[in-house]
Amino acid sequence: MKKAVVTADFSRKLKGKIKPLHGVNNSPLSLYEPPKGFREAGIPFCRLHDTGGAYGGSRYVDIPNIFPDFDADPKKPESYDFAFTDAYLTQLHAAGTQIFYRLGVTIENNYRIKAYRNHPPKDFKKWAEICAGVVRHYNCGWANGFKFGIKYWEIWNEPENPPMWSGTREQYFELYRITSNRLKKEFPELKVGGYASCGFYAVNRPNCTDFYKGFVTWYDEFLKFVTAKKTRCPLDFYSWHLYTWDPEEIILHARHVDSKLKEYGLTGVENIFNEWNYTTRNPSRRFLEMKDNEGASFVSAAFCLMQDSPVDKAMYYDAYPQRAYCGLYHFPGTRTTQTYSAFAMWNRLYRLGIRYEASSDTENLYTCAAADKSGKAWFITNFSPKSCRIKLAVKAAELKDFSAWLIDKRHDNAPAPVSEELVLAPYATLLLTTVKPAEKKAAEKQTETVHAGLDDRAARKGKKK
What we know:
With 465 residues, the chain is of the alpha/beta class. The protein has eleven helices and 19 strands.
């Protein structure tokens, strides 16, 4: 077995901090206490799309749930039903997680039988006013609301996709223009964007159908629209999706997004990858493998790769236990998976913040390192069906000072021995850290501060009195 060398040099600080890549879509739907495991894993962002199941569970997040009678007056608090969304968002904030709010509707997978909510709003300006009411409630205390300081507001989701949008491309662009301008006029501090693209499979996958090729065209036309003199409108972030078995494909698509933003002069626009998961090469085991050590190794490899990519933030789909795509929990209940453990491991780097040089000389062996005054952490994963014999080469630190935590077929974030040479099993992830258990509370407090990121610190205390 060839011996691989994995190196961490804690004398060589790199530009930039560890990115908040361990965000998710949704969570266990917890209304009376913070979602299980969110604080422990330090989940930095929770995107609200498909929240609560079909049709947004008829109570959550979606505009038709919050504003059930479109003919009502959006300036009147009684026109809105915030109750269940209030309870849910309150507990996400209690977990120290920032909200990434999708304005729109949940996917209608059975739209061919009958489509209920995926149509363009009958009055775009009124729809934008309703969205402004939602922002006002959660950020300004309006309608017995909150001061949560939610920064990211996404306008719709996957409008290229018929289960999400029955209208034309031109109709979506106009809805985006009207809504983004309306929100930025009243709330200039917000980050407004979209459009949560289905992705760019046709960029590198052969034999894509015209449907998939159309996603690439949509992106070009959207960037033309938002930068044209007559239709210019705000775009603070561009969001997109990818489901794949190859973590390297994420980087290819991230670079495509980045290159197009630069081509249109949108250099300050954030590149946000807010739906992704492991599809595996074995469809019959897909929803099992995304939860086990193989899925954990995939997300670990993706975290390491995205750290060096144009991706600014990432949000995994999904953390809602009742959904097949949920890789973080077993259902029924909220027993966490090995993939959840990979998220928790990454958080131990993230909360240290400062990135240091780390490298591997072997394909499919990925690594990343971080440190601050409280200690050091070194993250390694073997995203391969074969075992790998590795030599750990650490600089400006002593290997004996590290403790190890392991995910593999037989271990789930379990303590492991530390040695200069070891064998990393197939689809195994290893975290080495000098941060001692006694420092856990201080590190968690630091995580809360980083995650909050609110302009109004008092917002974390809940409702405006």
